[in-house]
Amino acid sequence: MDAYDNPNAASDLATYRTKYGLGTANFTKYNQRGQTGNYPSGSTGWGVEIDLDVEMVSASCPLCSIYLIEADSASASDLSAAEREAVKLGARIVSNSWGCSGSGNCARKKDFDAKGVVYLASGAGELGAPAYFDTVVSVGGTTLAKNGSQYSESVWSGSPGGCATPIKKPKWQRDHSCAHRLANDVSAVANDVALYDSYGYGGWASVSGTSVSAPLLAGVFGLAGNAARQKGGRTFWLTGHRADLYALEGSCSGYGYGQYTTCGGWGSPNGIGAF
C-alpha cells in the first residue's frame, strides 16, 4: 500500500525476480478505487518505495499474489481509502511502509482492524501511526553481518521504536516498561539491501530502512498461511512463539527487558513458527 504511481513497477519487479531466479510474479496494480488504470500522478520518491515493497515481498514469498494499491496522494484521506480498498480486493496481508506522527489524526485505527487481515507497518517511534496501533504489527530493523559462512544479526542503528504515549497499553502487553503501547513487535533485516528501480534510481541500488523489513515480513506471513488467525502484534508477545524468533545482538536506546527491545521487538524470524 503506497502513494502516487511508479509507472515502471511491473517491469522493475520482473527484472528483480529474473536476477534472483524467482519466476514470474502474480502481480496486479490498482488505484485507490480498485481500478487497473487511471493511476495517480507519478512520484520518483514514492516510486522507490513501491519497488522496494513489491520486491521484498517477492524475496520472502515468491509465490504470493501481490496487489499494489496506489493512493492518489499521501494525504490521510487517500491513504485510508487505499487501505480499505486493499481489503475489498481480497488482501489478507497489508504492508505499509509509511507513517505519520503528531496528533494521531493522520491515520485512523478503524482503517486497520478488519477481521481476518494482518496489517504491518514500518517501525514506530514515540508517536507514529499506523505502526503504534495494537491491531498492527510494528516492524523494526536489523543488520546482518557475515563472517565466513556464518551470519550474526544485530539491532539496526536506524530502527525506531518506543512507548507510544497516545495509545492505551494492550492487555497482551504485560511489561512494566511504560504505561502505553510498546513498539516494535518483531523485526527483520533493514540495512543495505539490494533494490532495482529504473524510475528514480536508474537501476540497481542499495537501500536501508524499516521499509525493507515490513514487506519482507508480510511475505513471511504469506508463507505461514494463517493470516486470518492473527491479531496485530499480539502473536509475537505470546511466550510460546519466542523460540521461533532469533534474539538480536547489540543494544537499543529505548525500552527493553530480557529478549525484548523496542528497536527490534522480540527478534527476527527463525522459520515461520512465530507467524
Model description:
The protein has 275 residues and is α/β, with parallel strands linked by helices. It has a domain at 2-139 and 190-241: 3-Layer(aba) Sandwich (Rossmann fold), CATH 3.40.50.200. The chain has 4 helices and 16 strands. The strands form 6 sheets. Strands 4, 5, 6, 7 and 10 form a 5-stranded mixed sheet that branches. Strands 1-3-2 form a 3-stranded parallel sheet. Helix 1 packs parallel to helix 2 (44-60) and helix 2 runs parallel beside helix 4. The longest helix is centred in the first third of the chain and has 17 residues, at 44-60. The radius of gyration is 17 Å and the shape is globular. The model has no long low-confidence stretch (mean pLDDT 92).
Strand content: 25-35%
Order of helices and strands: EHEHEHEEEEEEEEEHEEEE
* Uncertain parts: none
CATH topology of the domain at 2-139 and 190-241: Rossmann fold
Please tell me what the overall shape is. globular
Q: Helicity level, as a percent range?
A: 10-25%
Rg from alpha-carbon coordinates: 17 Å
Number of beta strands = 16
